[in-house]
Write a structure and sequence with these properties.
- By secondary structure, the chain is of the alpha/beta class.
- It folds into three domains: 260 residues, Aconitase, domain 3, CATH 3.30.499.10; 148 residues, Aconitase, domain 3; 176 residues, Aconitase, domain 4.
- Helices cover 27% and strands 17% of the residues.
- Strand 15, helix 9 and strand 16 form a beta-alpha-beta unit.
- Helix 2 crosses helix 5, helix 6 packs parallel to helix 7 and helix 9 crosses helix 11.
- It starts with 37 loop residues before the first helix and ends with a helix.
- 57% of the residues are buried.
- Bound molecules: alpha-methylisocitric acid and iron/sulfur cluster.
- Alpha-methylisocitric acid binds next to helix 2.
Length: 675
């Protein structure tokens, strides 16, 4: 293990197994290497393999992991299959926040399974009702300077307190829990240089919407967005976390803020000041790219259907009637957000045409709202209070009416994600959402006059009674499995000859919500792959699963940024179950590409992007010498037997990734390499 800084090695743990880092403000023994950015410093301190040169594969040691229930059941089944008695991380936390509606036994069974698994393997368990994983982790567990790997794409929320927090597929997280380092292409580091201060009514959400407007949902691919400049000190931790959270929508590997006095105050309010270390970029740090952003020049922004980068100014579409307003999600459910909401709703009534739903991000936020009296203002105005969970963000209830216009403070507005296929979802700040809920039409909050001043408490009510610590020895704990938990499907090593049909050809920016939809009806099937596989590509082509089964597998062709969005490995695992052997796309989103490899599906790219036109759904394709080519890192020749032409397919895979595919997936590979 290579570590450049002493503080990256093991430190004492508190009662939750959290690391107690060096004394606040104290530099690590040996000091920092000069000329580094915050991200570089942390990555280098955790580097196990490779060099921080953009594109090359690196491996980093993971200090903390988090899972949520929708990806966690599979991740823990995989961890179990690795036959490791106890997690080897400093801290692993299992959250239950996604599948909280219990319309049948399935989700409840999964919760019980997760609780028993946590006790067995030394994992901290955050009970249903305790809150959204990213919000709770920031409040109770995150530590500046540490690495966090989470089986959820919004794990970069932790970058708000100076963590390198990365989203990954459940299998990668399971491997990290088993002590296996996390591999990724070394990212380019982009400095987002902030200056000025946000004007009244403009919020952190508008900062990230502005970046999405400029850079698009592909703009962050292969990059870490590191925030710096004078403007940083004007942003609180919840604001920073909103920005790093939604860096996921840029496709970024992660996003990070320095850890400064504001971070210290946030941790102190959580009774965790001892977790603070200062982390700042050196004055002479160099970056691969610099983006300048003047906070004082921003205005309220809104992302229109059906992509988070379809951003315009709120005032451009003001006046459009609204049917639903939803406030919450891991992007905007902090106490700060909720206090702003309460102040705006104070003494008002929600417009008669609007259903306003509110989900506070954590039990702590909810308790604070109750204690400060802010809850009375929210409920008094007619808001429908939901539990502290993901809820409508993932279509877990509160599906809007047909053809509805729904304004949400969330991070994704992909087609169908709300649970209503013809609904139009707009993404906005809390300020814009609250203003629109009151008026009943899309409203620029600046029209409300002087903004309320919010009194933010400097001490939070700490009550960790919904967090269960694992026993010191969990080896005798029985794992409780309900009938919904089916055994893991086995992935087969790729064959030397692959012949079959293109089952589907899709456009650019296809999301994992297209590939493997979520929502209240499908999410409960996450631990039952045969059942969930029936829904693959349902939003685009409801006949996909039946055709794949009839043809005994086949292939998929995609455009740019294939598989953007969530970390759900089910978008690879379920196609694998249906026999999909390769996906040929113009380019891939990072997490999905890794997930395809993890389940033995080859992510191929066009050597000539024009060849995209030379392959269609239904074409019969044959590739020979597949295993030999993978071993020798040579491109594949895909014979399009239907058209009588050849297409050259490349792949940008490290030796390790090629071995994983040859082994039939990461699980088989890890079993071979982790002892
Ligand atoms: C999402 O926001 O899409 C999810 C649901 O949180 C996913 C994880 C999942 O599909 O379980 C994510 O962001 O990774
Ligand atoms: Fe939950 Fe939505 Fe955040 Fe995903 S984006 S973790 S569904 S709140």
């Amino acid at each position: 293990m290579i570590t450049t800084h002493r503080w990256a090695i093991m430190f004492p743990h508190d009662t939750f197994g959290r690391v107690v880092p060096p004394e606040a403000g104290k530099e690590p023994e040996g000091g920092y290497v000069v000329g580094k950015s915050v991200a570089q410093k942390i990555i280098e301190a955790h580097l196990v393999k490779g060099e921080l040169k953009p594109g090359a594969e690196i491996a980093i040691r993971i200090d903390q992991t988090l899972t949520q229930d929708a990806t966690g059941t599979m991740a823990y089944l995989q961890f179990e299959a690795m036959e490791i008695p106890r997690v080897r991380t400093e801290l692993s936390v299992s959250y239950v926040d996604h599948n909280t509606l219990q319309a049948g036994f399935e989700n409840a069974d999964d919760h019980r399974f997760l609780q028993s698994v946590a006790a067995r393997f030394g994992i901290v368990f955050s009970r249903p009702g305790n809150g959204i994983c990213h919000q709770v982790h920031l409040e109770r567990f995150g530590v500046p300077g540490r690495t966090l790997l989470g089986s959820d794409s919004h794990t970069p929320t932790g970058g708000g307190i100076g963590m390198i927090a990365i989203g990954a597929g459940g299998l990668d997280v399971a491997a990290a829990m088993a002590g296996y380092p996390f591999h990724m292409p070394a990212p380019r580091i982009v400095l987002v240089r902030l200056k000025g201060k946000l004007p009244d009514w403009v919020s952190a959400k508008d900062v990230i919407l502005e970046l999405l407007r400029r850079l698009t949902v592909k703009g962050g691919l292969g990059k870490i967005m590191e925030y710096g400049g004078d403007g940083v000190k004007t942003l609180s931790v919840p604001e920073r976390a909103t920005i790093t959270n939604m860096g996921a929508e840029l496709g970024a590997t992660t996003s990070i803020f320095p850890s400064d006095e504001i971070t210290r105050a946030f941790l102190a309010a959580q009774g965790r000041e001892s977790a603070w270390v200062e982390l700042k970029a050196d004055d002479d740090a160099s970056y691969d790219e610099i983006i300048d952003l003047d906070l004082s020049a921003l205005v309220p922004l809104i992302a229109q259907p059906h992509s988070p980068d379809n951003v315009v100014e709120v005032k451009q579409i003001e006046g459009k009637p609204v049917d639903q307003v939803a406030i919450g999600s891991c992007t905007n459910s902090s106490l700060k957000d909720m206090l702003m909401l309460a102040a705006l709703l104070d003494g008002k009534t929600v417009a008669p045409n609007v259903s306003l739903v509110v989900s506070p991000g954590s039990k702590q936020v909810l308790e604070m709202l109750a204690a400060t009296g802010a809850l009375t203002k929210i409920v008094g105005a007619g808001a429908r209070l939901l539990e502290s969970a993901c809820g409508p963000c993932i279509g877990m209830g509160q599906a809007p009416p047909s053809g509805a216009t729904t304004l949400r403070t969330f991070n994704r507005n992909f087609l169908g994600r709300s649970g209503t296929k013809d609904a139009n979802v707009y993404l906005v700040s809390v300020e814009t959402a609250a203003a629109s809920a009151i008026t009943g039409v899309i409203t620029d909050p600046r029209s409300l006059g002087t903004p309320p001043s919010i009194e933010f408490p400097d001490k939070m009510q700490i009550n960790d009674n919904m967090i269960i610590k694992p026993p010191a020895d969990g080896s005798k704990v029985e794992i409780i499995r309900g009938p919904n938990i089916k055994p893991l499907p086995k992935s087969q090593p790729v064959g030397d000859v692959l012949e079959g049909k293109v089952l589907l050809k899709v456009e650019d920016n296809i999301t994992t919500d297209h590939i493997m939809p979520a929502g209240a009806k499908i999410l409960p099937l996450r631990s039952n792959i045969p059942a969930i596989a029936e829904h693959v590509f349902e939003v685009i082509d409801p006949s996909f699963a039946a055709r794949a089964k009839r043809e005994e597998g086949g292939f998929v062709v995609g455009g740019e940024n294939y598989g953007q969005g969530s970390s759900r490995e089910h978008a690879a695992l379920a196609p694998m179950y249906l026999g999909v052997k390769w996906v040929l796309a113009k380019s891939f989103a990072r997490i999905h590409k890794a997930n395809l490899v993890n389940f033995g599906i080859i992510p191929l790219t066009f050597a000539n992007p024009e060849d995209y036109e030379k392959i269609s759904s239904g074409d019969k394709i044959r590739a020979e010498n597949v295993r030999r080519s993978l071993k020798q890192n040579e491109p594949l020749v895909l014979k399009n037997l239907t058209r009588g032409i050849e297409i050259r397919a490349e792949y940008d895979l490290s030796e390790r990734q090629r071995e994983i595919i040859l082994d039939g997936g990461l699980l088989n590979h890890v079993k071979k390499t982790v002892t």
